[in-house]
Amino acid sequence: MRRTQGVFGTLLAGSLAVGALAGAPALAATTTTTQLPVFASDDAYTSSARTSLITGSETKLVAGTVAGDRKVSYLKFTTGKAATGAKLALALDEAPAGSTLTVTRVLASSWAESTLTSANAPALGTTTVSAKLAAGQQEVVFDLGAQIKAAGTYSFAISSSSTTAVTRIHSTEHGTAGLRPALRLTVAGAATPAPATPAPATGCTTGAKLIPTCGVLWGAAAGGFTSTPRDTALKQWEAVTGRTAAIYHTYHKGNELFPTPAEIAMTTDAAKPRTLLLNWKVAYGDTWAGVKAGTQDKRIDRWSAHVKANFKKPFFLALHHEPENDVNTNPESGMTAKDYAGMYRHVIQRLRANGVTNAINVVAYMGNETYLAKSWWPDLYPGDDVTDWIGLDSYLNAEKGYHHGDLDNLLDRGPVAGTNKLGFYDWATTKHAGKPIMVAEWGVYHSLKRTADKGAIFDTVLSQLKARSAVKAMVYFDCPADDTGDRNITVTSSASALTAFKKIAADPIFNVTLK
């Protein structure tokens, strides 16, 4: 999402800061469960009329019979954990009202979507679960808890009772992860204490390059495009949500000198310790290729001198965040993906040569599935030697449709096509193992024309975050109107949204002491 800023939004009265409940008793230990989504490793449909048809690369699955052509869809899942419950969720693109979808266990899992046809389709078992579809239904969920208990590979077939129309289901190749077929596993957790408010820090601190020794750094940006100063807006947001933002996120460009006195002041409050995440568009008014060639060296040197004279503490620095949106594949543009990587390397190496040793750099991607599929996308990465953290700016839609989903959707949207087959999180942890991941911007939005409940999405965050150990920082972007003027990203858009968000903020996983 491009730079989204706006009026801070209505603050809810009566909200308490973290310390206000410091003496409240902790709740008794409880046994927890985690909702773990598992996407299909293979999915395709077969056609009785076209016995050699292969559909594994299509963005849809089909079930039903039309003019004697019977179509059956197949899905394969591999689960890594024993489950106490399992539900298969299918997002419907088109469904004839009154028809019945049936899920049948497939006897073998040796088939692959790249070769599956009606001529070689595996035999079906007898275990079935059915659901009758209603007009306009967008999702159907089947309880497969009786079939899925232990870790393993499971295959299922989807058929329809309709003989005059077909049901179309979004497949794994669909660009939006939240619309892909998924097993929602319920996995038992250990007995853990459930404090009502954040407990005192339990030894989690920041080490080298501000990487937490345990836990996750909590951060935010608030108050853009408003008469409210950013520092004031952040303090208001902290009071509403109940936790100090250890990372204070701000934005700069061109010849601006920063951190500003106001930003520095935000890092000197001993009662509310914070560090800075400073975004800088070094090439403002220039091109990436120009910066790489040295056209902005004076700008870099001037900023280096300002930092060395005014700010000694370690801080995060992101150079030209969300570069995907500005890539121009014309080699003469100076704005190719390789030009970005070259610009990034040049700036970091010059800062180091200038003695700026407290800037911890973050490459902040958009992580959009369309860009991930581009052949040039891997060329953006400037190299492990000049990259301290890998960042992601990604958002979720509280309304059904584009980018509706949960935290796993936000972190690991897969490419729609192309040579890169990994979602963002899997790409980062596979190709650049050991690099900490910062969710440098995240948020849940809905249209300004209507209020959708963000609480259900916020409720997915903690369990899924704790399953993603490479994520070491989460920075919320809060504004009531983005750059399109259409989307509200506040956590205060409804009472239920704020209640759910405050539960996230209160979790001890964010009890990290800045050092």
From TrEMBL:
Gene3D superfamilies: Glycosidases (3.20.20.80). It holds the Pfam family CBM96. Keywords: Glycosidase, Hydrolase, Secreted, Signal. The active site is at 322 (proton donor), 441 (nucleophile). Residues 192-501 form the GH26 domain. It comes from the Bacteria. Residues 1-28 form the signal peptide. The keyword Signal applies. The keyword Hydrolase applies. Its main location: secreted. It is found in: Secreted. NCBIfam families: DNRLRE_dom. Belongs to the glycosyl hydrolase 26 family. This is GH26 domain-containing protein. It comes from Catenuloplanes nepalensis. The lineage of its organism: Bacteria, Bacillati, Actinomycetota, Actinomycetes, Micromonosporales.
